[in-house]
Amino acid sequence: MSFSENLEQRWLLGIPQMDDTHREFAQLVDGFAEIDANDRDAFTERYQQLFRHTAEHFQNEDRLMCDSGFFATAMHKGEHERVLGEMARMGGYLQRGQVKMVRDYVLEHLPGWFEQHAATMDSALAGHLKNRNVNVNELTQPQTAQE
Ligand SMILES: [Fe+2]
Ligand SMILES: [Fe+2]
Known about the structure:
The chain is mostly helical. Helices cover 77% and strands 0% of the residues. It has a single domain (15-130), classed as Hemerythrin-like (Four Helix Bundle (Hemerythrin (Met), subunit A)).
C-alpha cells in the first residue's frame, strides 16, 4: 500500500486544512519512487519542493498551535524543528552526490516518521481544535502549500 493510500485509510484527522496538507506531503513522498536516482538535478528539484512544502506545513501548524493556545506547542514545534533540521542535513548529503541515501531517507524513513507524528502530536492538535470548536479558517490564513 502506498503512503498516500495508507494516509487515506488511517491518518486523516478531521481538520481539512491539516488533512489536505498531509495528502500533499504523502503524494510528494510517493512521487520519489518514480524519480530516476541517476538524474541528480531532477531529484534535487523534487527534494527542494518537498523541503519547502514541509517547511510551510510545519509553519502553518505552529501558527495554529500558537493562535489556539495548544498545551503542547513547545514540544510539537520542537519536533518540527528537529525534522526540518534533519531534512536540511539530507539536502547537504544530496549536494555531495549521495542521492541513494536521500532517496532511502524519503521513501523509507519519512512515512514511518509521519505515521508516528500523526498518531501523536498532530492528532492531539486536531483533537484540541475540535474540542474547542476552533474555526481554523478564521484563526489563520493558511499559506498555499503547493507550488
Ligand atoms: Fe502535520
Ligand atoms: Fe505536526
